[in-house]
Amino acid sequence: xxxxxxxxxxxxxxxxxxxxxxxxxxxxxxxxxxxxxxxxxxxxxxxxxxxxxxxxxxxxxxxxxxxxxxxxxxxxxxxxxxxxxxxxxxxxxxxxxxxxxxxxxxxxxxxxxxxxxxxxxxxxxxxxxxxxxxxxxxxxxxxxxxxxxxxxxxxxxxxxxxxxxxxxxxxx
Length: 172
Description:
Blueprint: E1 11-14, H1 27-33, E2 39-43, E3 64-69, E4 93-96, E5 100-104, E6 108-112, H2 115-132, H3 138-147
Parallel strand pairs: 1-2, 2-3, 3-4
Antiparallel strand pairs: 5-6
């Protein structure tokens, strides 16, 4: 911001997606964020439940992709699944994304569904981790989040929920 790298954010939450998982339009942007120490959290998309439905830019290797779960820790039907077009298991993790209370235009609140509701949970965990340890690397941050996730499948990681549903307390 303003040309001052000291004011750069620790994390960006990206709740946009294109149905074409092969699209690389934002790859250069993500490749710029990583060396700057900015963790990029991306919504996995809402084109599930089919296999290989993850959208771009969450499908890109530089992204940290987030799927959605419901209140029973079941993967949300709409949550896009991996693998990525490059064979990567995605999403990396899942977070609550069904009936999430959110602010809406006009100063009101309502419940919404989507991986765009799930991704901010992960962005918040990244911000919390960075507040505890400001020099935490992107790799270590990703490891802490994935290794403390609550497993939601027999095989880990899997193309439904990745390493599982995030736990905001455990990585700290």
